[in-house]
Amino acid sequence: MGNFKINVSDAPFFILTGFPGTEAMEPWLSFPLLLLYAIAIVGNILILLIVKEEPSLHQPMYYFLSLLSVNDLGVSFSTLPTVLAALCFQARVIAFNVCLAQMFFIHLFSWTESGILLAMSFDRYVAICNPLHYAAVLTNARIVAMGLCTVLRSFALILVFPLLLHRLPFCHPRNILSHAYCLHVDMIKLACTDVSLNSHYGLSIVLFTFGLDSALILLSYVLIFRSVLAIASPGERLKTLNTCVSHVLAVLIFYVPMVSVSIVHRFGAGLPHAVHTLMSLIYLFVPPMLNPIIYSIKTKEIQRRLLKMLFRVRS
């Protein structure tokens, strides 16, 4: 039998995977996922509407929260079409270019979220460590510039992924992905050539973005805690730290699953496929769902406006 080599131009298709071994139950398993999507989409849209309508929330902290909500909507809508198609309608075949586009947007929004969380930590640092200059430092123009820089950084770094993937040949008769959506690390595993360039570049930008951002976030909180400890009143210390709780939780629910997914992908080759699937689902689904819930619980202004909206709908 001759060499069987398929290039993307000859067979531009991949096959999505749901929950292996539970194919008969997948339509039922899709309901919890769709519920998570609904909570994430409705929750983040409500946050955007509340920040827009509530004048007291027209502050830098909540502008950054709005950016986070827009980004979380992007994460949800990036994965929704293929998850819905694969699990609910058993439509598992995806064209290479469509897969490439989905992979690009999933990673773009993930990288952007890291940058937004860094910008939010800077907001908390200025508010607590330099409150007298807060309004002068975080002007509307600077907030827009920080948001644009975060998106452009992610765009420039992720743009290389499709270019590197286009040069790879795929040799398998069936290019079966590990999930119901396309990820870079998943796609390069199916190539039949050396992928060290793709792998090294992926690792380097992970260190450059997630590694650098998390280190700067940690540094900002070290400086914040040092400033808080200088406050004489224990009550004032607690009140000041309470303004950071929502952001700390948002950082944890983003970075902990992300680090866990990276560890599982690189060192968990012997683990059951269900573990890989579960970790990826937590990484992509949990932050967009929990972020609006956390900020709604911890922010009284959002709570009040949300209750007003609910009572208005009922009446």
TrEMBL record:
Keywords: Cell membrane, G-protein coupled receptor, Membrane, Olfaction, Receptor, Sensory transduction, Transducer, Transmembrane, Transmembrane helix. Gene3D superfamilies: Rhodopsin 7-helix transmembrane proteins. One of its GO terms (biological process) is cellular response to lipid. It is found in: Cell membrane; Membrane. One of its GO terms (molecular function) is olfactory receptor activity. Residues 43-295 form the G-protein coupled receptors family 1 profile domain. SUPFAM superfamilies: Family A G protein-coupled receptor-like. It comes from the Eukaryota. GO terms for cellular component: plasma membrane. The chain crosses the membrane at residues 28-51, 63-87, 93-122, 143-165, 205-232, 244-265, 277-297. It is a multi-pass membrane protein. It holds the Pfam family 7tm_4. Putative odorant or sperm cell receptor. PANTHER family: OLFACTORY RECEPTOR 56B1-RELATED, OLFACTORY RECEPTOR 645. Belongs to the G-protein coupled receptor 1 family. This is Olfactory receptor. The gene is LOC113904984.
